Structure formats: C-alpha cells, structure tokens
Amino acid sequence: MRVIGVLGGMSWESTQSYYQALNQEINQALGGFHSAQIVMVSIDFAEIETLQKTGDWDTAGELLASASKRIEKAGAECLLLATNTMHKVAPAIEAAIQIPFLHITDATGEKCQQDGVTQVGLLGTRFTMEQDFYKARLKECFGVDVLIPNHEDRQAVHQIIFDELCHGQIKESSRQRYLKIIASLYQQGAQAVILGCTEIALLIDQQDTAVPLYDTTALHVSKAVAWALGD
Question: Active-site residue among 15, 83, 85, 128?
Fold first, then answer.
C-alpha cells in the first residue's frame, strides 16, 4: 500500500469526510484491521478564504504549494487536494512537488465518461461555477459540457456553502433549495449534477433525488485508493 498525502482544512468539515472515506475504502478492500496510510496537512482556512475574496490566487497558490512540499517531505507518495475550488491553483502545486497530483476534476471526468454523460450540471462555490479552471478541464479533457445555475441560484449555493456548511450547519431549508436547483439543471438537459464542492455532500446525497449526483469527494477518494493499492 502506498502512502496518500492529503492537503486539507478547506474546510475541515469536509476534510474529515476525506479521512473517514479513505480509511473505510482501504478497509473494505483489504479487510481485517487495515486502514489507509495517510500524511495530512490541514491549513487555516481563514487565510485562504480571505485570499479567495480578494482574488489573490497567486498568494494562495504559494501557500498551498508550500504545504504540499511539507506533505511530500513527510513521506507521501501522491497528493490529494481536499477541495474543489482550490484546484484553481493546481498548477502551482504540481510545479512544487515531484509526487503525482491526483486532480479532483479528472476523477469526476472519468466518471462522466464511464457513464456516457456528456452534459452535466455543476454546483460549487461561485469561483468553481463561474470561472473556467474546472469547466474547461471537463470539456477539454473529457468532452463534457457544463451547465451552471442562474445568477440568483449561484448566489444561494455559494452562500449556503460558506455561511452554513463550512460551519457544520445542516438546514432542511437549504437542502430543499439545492434540490430545486438540481431539478432545474436536470430540466435544462443535465444528465447528472456534480457536487463540485466537498462540503455539499454533507447536505445532500443520492437518496434525496432521482437525478444522478456525482460526489466529488467520493470520486476523488476512490481514485486515490485505487492508486494506493496499485489498481
């Protein structure tokens, strides 16, 4: 089993989901008392959140690249960045390390290809929904077109993530709002909807809707476990 590196804390609410899922999948694969070999660095999200709001992505990239080098130095053999939004600075991280960087969008795009999905809806922070770093990779590498909610719905999705989910608050009213947005994307032609923020899976899952949902945390974890076990 190879050692999985995890760069988390963005937010810690979803990072704990990564830790749990990595260990569960390794145990399911190997049985007994097996658990994942993990090297993790969890950073202070307050600093990153301020840089997001001010648009200082270069400084954010430098901070995450530095943390990634610490993970590599500690013995990790691959790296997971446990957040969708901060994959915007993935090039800075990849340039700073020698170990493989397992990109969350690739895990999602591979799932789309497996299912024959060519058009998806995307929920996430406004940075992920509105900027091109995520959507363009899905289109260019996997041939997947992306639909995003309208402006009002994007604002609601973003606000619920930062004001509630990042603080561990789960509200039924927010679940229902998300489900209406998912239904709207499906009606517009989305064959599935990507939960493109690692916190969203804390609020909704597949049992809440008949629309196929792609939980990026789960897909990312499965890709890492397959890599760690040499599949």
Answer: 83
Bridge partners (DSSP) listed for residue 139 = none
Active site residue 166: no
The CATH number linked to 167 is 3.40.50.1860
From the list 78, 112, 166, 197, the catalytic residue is: 197
Total domains in the chain come to 2
Q: Are residues 141 and 79 in the same domain?
A: no
**Could you tell me if 3 and 35 are in contact, meaning their C-beta atoms sit under 8 angstroms apart?**
no
Is 112 an active-site residue? Answer: no
214/53 Cα distance (integer angstroms): 27
> pLDDT for 101-147, tens place per residue?
999 999 999 999 999 999 999 999 999 999 999 999 999 999 999 99
d(CA 140, CA 163): 33
Residue 114 lies in domain: 105-215
